[in-house]
Amino acid sequence: MFRTTRHPRTAAAARRGTAGLLAATLLTTALAGCNDSGDSADAAGSDGLTKITLASSPLGHLAPIYLAQDNGIFAKHGLQVEVDTETSDLTSVPSVLARKVDFATGDLTTLIVARTQGLDVKAVVPASASTGKAGADYGALVVAGDSGITSPKQLEGKTVAVNILTNIAAAAAREAVRADGGDSESLKLVEIPFPQVPAAISEGRVDGAWVVEPFLSAAKAQGAVPIGWGFTDLAEDLTVSAWYTSGALVAQKPEVVTAFRAAIREAFAYARDHEDEVRAKIPTFTQITPDVAGKITITGWRDEVSRQAAEKLAGYAQRDGLISTTPDLDELILP
Q1: Which of 188, 209, 234 is the last residue in one of the domains?
Q2: CB-CB contact of 26 with 93 (8 Å)
Q3: Rg, C-alpha atoms of the chain
Q4: Of 45, 199, 263, 266, which has the maximum CB count within 10 A?
Q5: Distance from C-alpha of 274 to C-alpha of 287, rounded to nearest angstrom
Q6: Which residues fall in a coiled-coil region (predicted)?
Q7: Residue 161 and residue 206 in contact, taking contact as beta carbons nearer than 8 Å
């Protein structure tokens, strides 16, 4: 069984160091990127449409975007969309600030950290959200089926994998343990990318892991069992990630931002009414098979970034040493 040697009393300090590195990376790369600014929203698309570029990892939350393209929803709102699935979550902030892409997805905790560092990011509309249903959400805290662990509290002092130590996954893992009456500070968090989690659990390299779909279903297929639903513990109406842009684009092209938000909301309404089409679309842009796509739990589709959730996440970020000051959420969340 893999174990870290870090004493629990040093965990908070380690997180602060990691958070400082994240913040420094976001700040320095964003400042460097701004020296090479290019406004893609100024480019003219076909038929007089405004061309915009979206950046996101190729995960299930992109299905409504592709369905909106297929059904002319973006064109209806005067937009021609290009989707960039190569820009990572960490590099999307400098790419957005440099106007290399117009909108990107980012987990809400990362955006809060960025805003606290003075980076002018604006959360426009949710990209993914908790379903709000413990036991039926698209993210969960899992353990091996034969581990003997049946509740999050039993993970006290044990090794738990998250994809990034400073994002919402880490917050969800800790909160699942805390909500169950456990000492979340005692967790020994290690970074393992979501695709590697099923093997890490089945091979006994970690005691538990926070994981989202489709890797949650993959882990369950290899014998893992969910024991906690940290998204619902974090907030009743949790915005997990958001489509965000730069303050500069909001100021200079407010009509583009308004059109994008309206198009996304219409795309979500379509997705809510056509779940079968969402599941059929997912295998066309991911490595998820049609069989798995037909079984996974789909993310919730929300029209508004939850202010309540953002306030709670900011509090968790301060508690866990990711930020040292209270962020101005009025500046982060677009009204």
Answers
A1: 234
A2: yes
A3: 20
A4: 263
A5: 21
A6: none
A7: yes
Q: List, in sequence order, every residue forming a beta bridge with 189; answer none if it has no partner.
A: 160
CATH number at residue 196: 3.40.190.10
Tell me, yes or no, whether 52 and 124 share the same domain. yes
- Residues found in the chain: 335
Angstrom distance (rounded) from CA 267 to CA 255? 18
What is each CA distance from 75 to 47, 78, 100, 168, 254, in whole angstroms? Answer: 9, 5, 21, 33, 17
Nearest to 226 by CA among 204, 238, 209, 205: 209
Three-state secondary structure readout of 113-143: HHHHCCCCEEEEEEEEECCCCCCCCCEEEEE
Region for 52 from its dihedrals, namely left if φ exceeds 0, alpha if ψ lies in -120 to 50, beta otherwise: beta
Helix (H) or strand (E) holding 227: strand 224-228
| DSSP-based three-state secondary structure for 305 | coil
Looking at the structure, do residues 248 and 100 belong to the same domain, yes or no?
Answer: yes
Contact 161, 197 (CB under 8 A): yes
Contacts 24+ apart (CB under 8 A), 10-17: 11/185, 11/186, 11/187, 11/188, 11/189, 12/185, 12/320, 12/321, 13/321, 15/165, 15/166, 15/320, 15/321, 15/322, 16/321, 16/322
Looking at the fold, whether 152 and 270 belong to one and the same domain comes out as no
pLDDT, one tens digit per residue, over 94-108 is 999 999 999 999 999
My answer on whether 154 and 218 are in the same domain is: yes
- Asked, for residue 318, whether it belongs to a domain, the answer is yes
Residue-wise pLDDT for 223-278, tens only, equals 999 999 999 999 989 999 999 999 999 999 999 999 999 999 999 999 999 999 99
What range does the domain containing 125 cover?
A: 21-130+239-332
Here the tokens at position 245 are 């842009």
